[in-house]
Design goal:
By secondary structure, the chain is of the alpha+beta class. It contains 18 helices and 13 strands. Helix 2 crosses helix 5 and helix 12 packs across helix 17. The protein is globular, with a radius of gyration of 24 Å. 48% of the residues are buried.
Length: 505
């Protein structure tokens, strides 16, 4: 099944691991030896200043991947600074204590032979990364140390970069996928939609000051809120020694925003909310219906999050009762099992459960009626099957799921960059222990746990339905959609900052 919210739901399939905990401390307060994990050649360290370091030894090529991540992003935004974490990410590349401007910054990258380098701001994480020859490991670590610890935040550079970020924000809304995801987040997280919008609000970016960015640095860009991920043709002890030398003097701030963030409400809607989106990516012969519910969050519902992954694997299996019943429903006219499925996105505070189906035109009923039938199927028939265990939830099936998860874990280790990128994601989302405990907790999941999960998160829950149709089809049937309670999703109303409810007081 194709997933639409790639920037939000791209990590549906979580890596599965456990962690063997062994700690040896020096009197100075940092780990003198690696905490060897159960993952072959992966080592974990922690410096005295609380900076975490993860090293994956992989000598297949004379290269090393270096990433530094910060536990921040849209989820840490307020109404007043929505967009400034994104802007800060851009300013990291505009010069620092050693590389005084972007030209010097870029020349340093070129000298190290960096082919691709980048940074990203997402919901739960801001990260920066590149791959360099392994003999330049020290140079690479020093490069990111200067970048993250001593950004200049030049006032004129800030004014120049505002234009770039504003262009990205506006350009994003020419993309149907961006409009769609923004509308979904605005509805489901209606009280604080800015906590899902990593791009931000144009007026806030336009009026940003150097002082605001420096405040973000004090609160979030500090070692106890950051982690380094190094993988490739290196030795873990050598990496640790260099990191201790280069990053050991990095100090924390008393202004660190250490409190737990408030979790958005999981209270279901009083009735099903329905959005219809005229999407140019669909032909007149095809439409897509999706149904979203809140799921367990990594910060507060870790146990349920593990169960959610097992439930997802079992439910989206092409041979599952859920998929087969949908495909065999002649009214839905779903081509085959690849066009229907379920999903779960693990997020720190904004996880979603989803059901989706791509439907071909049916001469017997309209697209609207097809959508309503799929929604009813999910809410009533499928949910009852989930609760009663009639969706193929047998011990043999759950073991197959666990075996499949283990196969994916092994496969993920083939590439250090991909592996560490996923580890970084889950470090930011649920913490490193959440990641390392995965295999152990997945093994604990029982059929009963899966049934209870359905009872807790699916039964009697009214969610958000989103129907994507061809623009011409929408125009032709617009009155019918509106009459039947479907609200049109547009470029204008998808943007939370265009809504009077969120205007600054």
């Amino acid at each position: 099944m194709k997933k639409y919210l790639e920037h939000f739901l791209e990590h549906f399939n979580r890596i599965r691991f456990s962690f063997c905990f062994a700690v040896l401390l020096f009197s100075l307060g940092f780990f003198a030896f690696a905490q060897k994990t159960s993952i072959e050649n992966l080592y974990r360290y922690k410096l005295e200043n609380s900076l975490e370091l993860f090293v994956l030894e992989d000598d297949k090529a004379p290269l090393v991947y270096i990433e530094i991540a910060v536990r921040a992003g849209a989820v840490t935004q307020t109404r007043e600074n929505a967009g400034l974490f994104h802007l800060y990410e851009h300013m990291m590349f505009k010069g620092n204590q050693k590389y005084k401007n972007q030209q010097d910054f870029t020349l340093a990258l070129n000298r190290m032979g960096v082919a691709q380098w980048n940074g990203s701001t997402s919901v739960d994480r801001v990260n920066y990364y590149f791959t360099i020859p392994s003999n330049l490991l020290k140079d690479g670590l020093e490069f990111w140390s200067y970048a993250i610890r001593t950004p200049l935040m030049d006032k004129q550079e800030l004014e120049n970069e505002k234009k770039v970020v504003l262009s990205e924000i506006q350009g994003g809304f020419s993309e149907p996928g961006r409009i769609l995801s923004a509308g979904i987040f605005k509805e489901i997280f209606s009280k604080e939609p800015w906590k899902l919008d990593s791009a931000g609000e144009p007026s806030i970016v336009k009026n940003a000051t150097v002082e605001q960015l420096k405040q973000i640095q004090k609160e979030f860009y500090i070692p106890k809120n950051a982690a380094l991920f190094v993988g490739g043709d290196v030795k873990s002890e050598d990496v640790f020694s260099l990191v201790k030398e280069i990053f050991g003097s990095w100090q924390n701030s008393e202004e660190f925003a250490d409190e737990k963030l408030t979790s958005p409400s999981k209270e279901p809607f009083s009735s099903v909310k329905k959005l219809v989106f005229a999407d140019s990516r669909f032909s007149k012969e095809m439409s897509q219906i999706s149904y979203y519910l809140r799921g367990p969050d990594a910060q507060n519902d870790a146990k349920d999050s593990y169960v959610a992954d097992v439930w997802t694997y079992m439910t989206e299996n092409p041979e599952s009762e859920f998929v087969q019943k949908a495909v065999n429903n002649s009214y839905l006219n779903i081509p085959d099992s690849d066009y229907v499925g379920a999903g779960y996105s693990t997020m720190r505070l904004s996880s979603l459960i989803s059901f989706s189906a791509t439907m071909m035109k049916n001469d017997k009923i309209s697209e609207l009626e097809q959508a309503n039938r799929f929604i009813d199927y999910v809410r009533f028939d499928a949910v009852q099957d989930f609760i009663k265990g009639e969706n193929g939830y047998k011990k043999a099936d759950i073991q197959k799921v666990k075996n499949r998860m283990e196969d994916e874990r092994i496969y993920s280790l083939e590439n250090a960059e991909d592996f560490l990128g996923r580890l970084s994601y889950f470090w930011a989302t649920g913490g490193s222990q959440f990641f390392f405990d995965y295999e152990k907790n997945i093994e604990k999941v029982s059929i009963k746990d899966v049934l209870l999960f359905a009872e807790k998160y699916l039964k009697d829950k009214n969610g958000l339905a989103v129907l994507q149709v061809n623009p011409e089809s929408f125009i032709q049937h617009k009155d019918e959609f509106i009459k039947n309670g479907w609200q049109e999703l547009t470029f204008e109303n998808a943007r939370w900052w265009k809504d009077f409810n969120y205007e600054k007081k």
